[in-house]
Amino acid sequence: MTCGSWYTRFLFLKQTHSFTPCLCPSECPFESSCPHNISQRVLERQATTEHDTCAQNEATSYYTSCNFLKTSEKWRVADTAERFSQQNRETPPGSSNLLETLLENHRTSNSSATLSSCVSMEPCACAEECMFTALSHADVTFGKMEGYLRSRQLCDVILVAGDRRIPAHRLVLSSVSDYFAAMFTSDVREAKQDEVKMEGVDPDALWVLVQYAYTGRLELREDTIESLLSASCLLQLSSVVQACCAFLMKQLHPSNCLGIRSYADAQGCHDLQRAAHAYTMEHFLEVVGGQEFLLLPVEEMERLLTSDDVNVPDEETVVTSLLTWVSHDVATRERHLPSLLAHIRLPLLQPQFLADLESNPLLRDSMECQRLLMEGMKYHLLPQRRPLLQSPRTRPRKATVGAMFAVGGMDATKGATSIEQYCLRRDTWRQVATMSGRRLQFGVAVLDDRLYVVGGRDGLKTLNTVECYNPHSKTWSVMPPMSTHRHGLGVAVLEGPMYAVGGHDGWSYLSTVERWDPQARQWSFVASMATPRSTVGVAVLNGKLYAVGGRDGSSCLRSVECFDPHTNRWNGCAPMAKRRGGVGVATWHGFLYAIGGHDAPASSLASRLSDCVERYDPQTDVWTTVAPMSISRDAVGVCLLGDRLYAVGGYDGQVYLNTVEAYDPQTNEWTQVAPLCVGRAGACVVAVRL
């Protein structure tokens, strides 16, 4: 557009863009493009004739500036103009019409965008950039509050403990302690008192905790920890309670664990109580030699005797500790002896030890004590009646049963060489050793507390080699080999010698049996079974060797044979209800158990894995089905540990299992226990007294 005169150009700009002079030129952030400055420059050139190009450039500059203002600062212009009008600020002559025009344009604009920008003034969308945070605010504030505490300024309450008066601020105490929060914010007498009596609180401990409320710091010392813990429990300072308990846990020792356990119980510190109790159980042999043990009240002594977790090598140790405790104060404690002796597992004592107890001066004059001793004697004299004599006194303590070992087996790497050990008291597995080489389908038996690993196969090669592992020294030794190479064999110890039963030699299924004489250190053959058996289950019961199930090359077997070493003959027994190869077997109190397995070769489409458990009674020659496992397990390792049967690992048709479950014959129930470190099938599982 070409404008002939400055006035024509000015009218064009005014009518087209409705500008107004800047109302606050000193504060305007857009000084160079402000409408006021542009219009001022136009007015100042009223008497000057310029080329149309100059006017056009001026108009272009103004138009650009107005567009910027419309999008970025329109709300500010409108708001400034509004305030200008309300305050009746004096304007230059000839400017009022322009101001009214600007305000009218803002009020009546049909543009929703213009209306929105004029009316809606939203805060900054980036709150993080607009919010100021004083990072040290809490430290500075509480630092000043601590200063007020020490100078006794602005204090509004005095805590009285004993002869000590401690000024403080209710707000600070309430913000840290739930005890004080409840006191000062509820309708109780103390909420309105200037002085509050703190009954039963150590004054020094209270002062330390008041300082902690302001600083968040306190010193933990052996000589003050108990009073500090008691006070923090009362004041419900949970963080201080936790810190004190953690401190005391680190101080646990055989000489103080009983006292800490009793103290924690009184204070309701359950984590500390459990830690002290576990420490006492773990170090029982050292604890009974300390002064705290001799001073135990009868209730605490009874608590120790009833625990299954006492870490003792045998039940004789527990009896000895009881008699020591009674002897420390015979006059007071002798009357408690019958009730305490009832918690001793007397049937599990050695017969000679029981006979000696019968003549003990503390026991011989008590009819109840003599009755309990006779009960223990009957357990030894009538072994065939033991299943009928089961009671809490016949359940062994966890530490007295030894440990369970799971040796080798098939795993995801096609052959595990590791040996894992299970601790019943802790319910944990850990790897303890490694075999010298890979073995599959081997046998393991315990002889003189050593593990004998017999036969097996390494890939396609069937082995006749034997290794011996000493769990005490954690060493391996090589033993004389068998006469026959065998995998899928069963191994067990009967009256001293070890037997290797059946298996496969790489060519055929075996019915032959070899016996290892530990004295002569040599192998010899005994009578063969009536049926060849591989993946056979072998166990010893009532002086006889049982061979259960297995495979004969054509099918899985349900037949059972037993070997009498005195006649060197195998005799048939009642067959199981199910065919079982890869079966796990174990004995408990006169019964033989057959657990899991498969009923046909894996190549058969009809092959099924089993969760079924059967129990054999040699007195009646009858198999009975009992509670099944939670899942099917083929090639499962089975072992008696304590008074429970453990089913370890196995194969469920898809994966090698690391799960373990325990069967309680007294309740006929299975329960899950800690899993193996490595899933494995065909592991040999045995128990060893450590």
UniProtKB/TrEMBL annotation:
UniProt cross-references to PANTHER family, sorted A to Z: KELCH-LIKE PROTEIN 31, LD33804P
Localization, UniProt: Cytoplasm, Cytoskeleton
Principal subcellular localisation of the protein: cytoplasm
One example GO MF annotation: actin binding
Gene behind the chain: klhl5
The UniProt record lists the keyword Cytoplasm: yes
InterPro entries in UniProt: BACK, BTB-kelch_protein, BTB/POZ_dom, Kelch-typ_b-propeller, Kelch_1, SKP1/BTB/POZ_sf
Source superkingdom: Eukaryota
Domain BTB as annotated: residue spans: 155-222
Organism the protein comes from: Dicentrarchus labrax (European seabass)
Name of the protein in its database record: Kelch-like family member 5
SUPFAM superfamilies from the UniProt entry: Kelch motif (SSF117281), POZ domain (SSF54695)
UniProtKB keywords: Actin-binding, Cytoplasm, Cytoskeleton, Kelch repeat, Repeat
Keyword Repeat: yes
GO CC annotation: cytoplasm; cytoskeleton
Xref: Pfam families: BACK (PF07707), BTB (PF00651), Kelch_1 (PF01344), Kelch_KLHDC2_KLHL20_DRC7 (PF24681)
